[in-house]
Design a protein that fits this description.
The protein has 9 helices and 10 strands. The protein has 278 residues and is an alpha/beta fold. Helix 2 runs parallel beside helix 3, helix 3 packs parallel to helix 4 and helix 7 runs antiparallel to helix 8. The chain is 36% helix and 23% strand. The chain has a 10-stranded mixed sheet, with helices on both faces.
């Protein structure tokens, strides 16, 4: 039987991010995807033109429908919109004992539109992250979650260490917003820390990268791989998706979810590092 997975996120009408990107990624990695919608966006490659949240009651009903009928091996969250929806999602995760939870703390769309209300950050930190296996922030999201500026590698280490104190088992602090020839993701747990590096690709086809990466990580966790193994595969998946762009739309185009299967795995350099955390 194929592993069954769940994405709890918003809809992207342009198909490059959100629920749509998650389900495409699940399919490519051969797990069966289910979904809970938290919001609907009017969105394309040029930006978000409208957002309407799904009621907390309907979010709860969706969670209960999935939780009562499917055996969810891993799940992920994306756009959660506000504190009310974060709280009902956290309650649903506890009620249905949804393990291997990946939290992608979606806050800002590629075009700059806010996708998480400011009042929701504390709910994310106190209600959802303690339930999570992995949190996958980019640098701006990590700055919001930790309240610190991140400019150097040492800042990234400190930020990851702070996020571990929220109760999450592992932090994957993505390096796409940092400068340099390589895109370096920091993976940190209580027992070890690693840098995963791939060549930086100059492209506008980056819409949905965070969603796609976290969905790939979720799929691999569902198959029983370790956090590091799952993260390496997710890094390879998103590197392929970015490297082989689709040239769709006039703005930030979507990544290529077919690329991993069509063009093969990308090389990822893995380096173990020592931090003050251990």
């Amino acid at each position: 039987m194929r592993p069954q997975v769940l994405t709890i996120a918003g809809s992207d009408s342009g198909g490059g991010a959100g629920i749509q990107a998650d389900l495409k990624t699940f399919q490519e990695l051969e797990v069966f995807g289910t979904s809970v919608l938290t919001a609907v966006t009017a969105q394309n490659t040029c930006g978000v033109h409208g957002v309407e949240a799904i009621s907390p009651e309907l979010v709860t009903q969706q969670l209960d429908a999935i939780g009562s009928d499917f055996t969810i091996a891993a799940c992920k969250t994306g756009m959660l919109f506000d504190a009310a929806r974060i709280e009902v999602v956290a309650a649903g995760v506890r009620r249905h004992a949804l393990n291997r939870l990946v939290v992608d703390p979606v806050m800002i769309a590629k075009g700059g539109a806010s996708l998480l209300q400011d009042s929701a950050v504390e709910a994310l930190k106190t209600s959802l992250l303690p339930l999570a296996t992995v949190v996958t922030p980019n640098v701006p999201e990590a700055e919001v979650l930790t309240g610190m500026r991140i400019r150097t590698f040492e800042d990234r280490l400190e930020a990851a260490e702070r996020m571990l104190t929220y109760g999450v088992r592992a932090v994957v602090l993505k390096g796409g917003h940092m400068e340099g020839e390589s895109a370096e993701d920091l993976v940190m747990t209580d027992s070890g820390a690693f840098i995963l590096s791939t060549p930086r690709i100059q492209t506008n086809d980056t819409h949905g990268t965070g969603c796609t990466f976290s969905a790939a990580l979720t799929a691999e966790l569902a198959k029983g791989y370790s956090i590091l193994e799952a993260t390496v595969t997710a890094k390879r998946f998103i590197q392929s998706a970015i490297s082989h762009g689709l040239d769709i739309g006039a703005g930030h185009g979507p990544t290529n979810h077919w690329a991993y299967a069509m063009y093969g795995e990308e090389d990822v350099t893995i380096e173990s590092i020592t931090t003050n955390h251990r």
